Amino acid sequence: LHDQKALAEVYLLSLTDNIVTTARSTFGYFAHSLGGLRPWILYKPENRTAPDPPCVKAVSMEPCFHSPPLYGCQAKTVEITPFVMTCEDSNPGLKLVDAPE
C-alpha cells in the first residue's frame, strides 16, 4: 500500500507545471522525468548561509544516479563519455545529457 501511495504521489507531481525540489530528492527527479521537465534544484544551506545561487535548473530531465558503481574502471566516466556528466547536486553522482555537438 505504501508503494502505491508513493507512486500516486510521484505521478501527481509529474503533472505540475513547476516544481522546486531539494538536492538529492529521488521523488523530485523521478516526477520531473516522468513529466518531461527539467527540475529546479534547491541547494542545501551550508553553515546557515544560503548558497549563491540558491537554486539551478538542471541541464537535463534525466534523474541523477547518486551512487554509480565503479565496475573496476579507474577512468573518470565524465571525462571519457560525452553523454554523461556529474550531477548538479551530487558528486560522484552521474546523469545522462545530450552529447555536445
TrEMBL record:
**Cellular localization per UniProt:** Golgi apparatus, Golgi stack membrane
Q: Looking at the record's lineage, which domain of life comes first?
A: Eukaryota
Checking InterPro entries in the record gives: XG_FTase
EC category: transferase
Q: Which UniProt keywords apply?
A: Cell wall biogenesis/degradation, Glycoprotein, Glycosyltransferase, Golgi apparatus, Transferase
UniProt entry tagged with the keyword Acyltransferase: no
Q: How does it sit in the membrane?
A: Single-pass type II membrane protein
User: GO biological process annotations for this chain's record?
Assistant: cell wall biogenesis; cell wall organization
Q: What is its EC number?
A: 2.4.1.-
Protein family:
Belongs to the glycosyltransferase 37 family.
**What's this chain's function?**
May be involved in cell wall biosynthesis.
Recorded protein name is: Fucosyltransferase
Please report the organism this UniProt entry assigns to the protein.
Answer: Brassica campestris
